[in-house]
Specification:
466 residues; mainly alpha; 84% helix; 0% strand
Length: 466
């Protein structure tokens, strides 16, 4: 059954207008999330001290895994929802959403329970020392209570965007970030609750985001959820997970890369004039700074997903290609600005994060310039990975999401230092980016060619029918 694309703006409204209305709210939500994480660390560092920051860093992989689960369900459900909506299969789209909501609650509660049971061994595996462990355990046991809220909020936010409500999706994410930022200094500095205060501020913010996200169940524009749609189906779960897998594993891969990078920098840094601490500190700042640029790119990628998915399902392949090309063009402009800032103003950027000795600034500036040298191409790989998920081709999306982080970067970080020492780690970044870019171009070129062939076949069938 073919959809009536005249009913849904995704099928007929101009692509630039659509991408602007979907991407801008996503970018704002991602930016606020990135910035409030930095502010969060500042409050804890000032109110608790370095052990507090160490505790939150040690527990951060728990949040990363939680976000990976949220992406697995949220992106998977949203991609399937868009494809079936574009194909005019509203009944299937309703089942996808109902199953997705059940998955969010089930996985969220199960994950929180497992984290509470295995808290100590997990924190030990993530690097907690005897001095840090009491802080880390206090913080993590509270934060774990909010894991189900985080998963449902992220999942519903993706579905709201796919349903044509990007501003609602943005508000879901903003509410928690704003409340957390307000409560952090209150709980830490006024009530003197330390890391526990920061943790309570986090889950209170997540709870209000969760309530707002849940309200969207009755606000869907394109479907009407019924009781029979709500339920878990193994088949539905597998299909949803397959489309969300690339984004989910990318999140896990980022954590794994960070662990390998940190250990390598510590090991080879000890053999250099910079020692262990300077490379480690510089890496953290470079990654946080790059995270702000990635917030823009992820926002564009998330904004393009419902447009691509709907039109691919509706077999409007020209609109799919136009959306992808516009998303790439927007990414290139933003990445070019990032490249200029990283290459010509690294000292000024690093200075924003505090002072340090001359050797620290020397290495940090060098790290930023070399490691992020190919940053202009990073967004192409990220957007393309999400593109394949949006059109229902998860294997290619998964391959692309793994190329830069796991298949190329980790081996290069381990191999290059054997020959070039600490410099080898720095050059592993642009080398991995360059190879991943070539793989991306090859896969995308093949997909665009297939799409044009399907378009030609579709046109010939219409002519034959006449």
């Amino acid at each position: 059954m073919q959809s009536d694309t005249k009913e849904n703006p995704l099928g007929f409204r101009s692509i630039p207008s659509l991408l602007k209305s979907f991407a801008i709210p996503s970018i704002i939500a991602m930016l606020v999330s990135s910035l409030y994480n930095i502010v969060d660390q500042i409050f804890i560092g000032q109110g608790v001290g370095y052990l507090g920051n160490a505790a939150t860093n040690v527990s951060y992989p728990l949040t990363t895994i939680c976000l990976a689960i949220a992406l697995l369900i949220g992106i998977g459900s949203a991609s399937r929802f868009s494809l079936h909506l574009g194909a005019g299969e509203k009944d299937i789209a309703e089942k996808v959403v109902g199953n997705g909501i059940c998955m969010m609650f089930t996985f969220g509660i199960l994950y929180a329970v497992l984290v509470e049971i295995f808290m100590s061994p997990l924190l030990t595996a993530f690097g907690a020392t005897p001095d840090v462990m009491p802080y880390a355990e206090t913080y993590s046991r509270i934060v774990a209570l909010g894991m189900p809220f985080l998963i449902v909020t992220n999942g519903m936010s993706n579905l709201a965007r796919a349903d044509g409500s990007p501003k609602y999706s943005m508000t879901c994410m903003l509410i928690g970030a704003v409340i957390n930022t307000i409560l952090d200094p209150v709980f830490i500095f006024i009530f003197h609750l330390g890391v526990a205060g920061a943790a309570w501020a986090t889950i209170i913010g997540q709870f209000f985001s969760f309530i707002f996200a849940l309200m969207y169940i009755r606000k869907f524009k394109n479907i009407t959820l019924k009781k029979k749609d709500i339920g878990l189906s193994a088949k539905e779960c597998i299909q949803t997970a397959s489309l969300g897998m690339s984004n989910s594993l990318n999140q896990v891969a980022i954590t794994f890369v960070q662990i390998v990078l940190n250990n390598s920098l510590t090991y080879y840094g000890a053999m250099s004039v910079y020692g262990k601490e300077i490379p480690l500190a510089a890496c953290g700042i470079v990654m946080k700074t790059n995270g702000i640029l990635l917030a823009f790119i992820i926002g564009i990628s998330q904004g393009s997903q419902p447009i691509i998915g709907f039109n691919y399902g509706a077999r409007q392949y020209d609109r799919v290609r136009k959306t992808y090309k516009l998303a790439i063009a927007a990414n290139l402009v933003i990445s070019a600005i990032g490249f200029i800032l990283f290459q010509f103003f690294p000292y000024q950027i690093i200075s924003l994060f505090g002072t340090g000795e001359a050797a620290y600034f020397e290495f940090a500036v060098r790290f930023m310039r070399i490691f992020l040298f190919m940053v202009i191409f990073n967004g192409i790989q990220l957007i393309s990975s999400n593109f394949f998920a949006a059109i229902g081709k998860p294997v290619k999306g998964l391959l692309l999401s793994m190329t830069r982080q796991v298949i190329f970067l980790i081996p290069l970080v381990l191999i290059l230092p054997l020959f070039f020492g600490l410099d080898g780690i720095l050059f592993a970044g642009p080398a991995a980016d360059g190879i991943a870019f070539i793989v991306t171009i090859c896969l995308i070129a093949g997909e665009i060619k297939k799409m044009k062939q399907m378009e030609t076949e579709q046109r010939l069938l219409k002519q034959a029918a006449k």
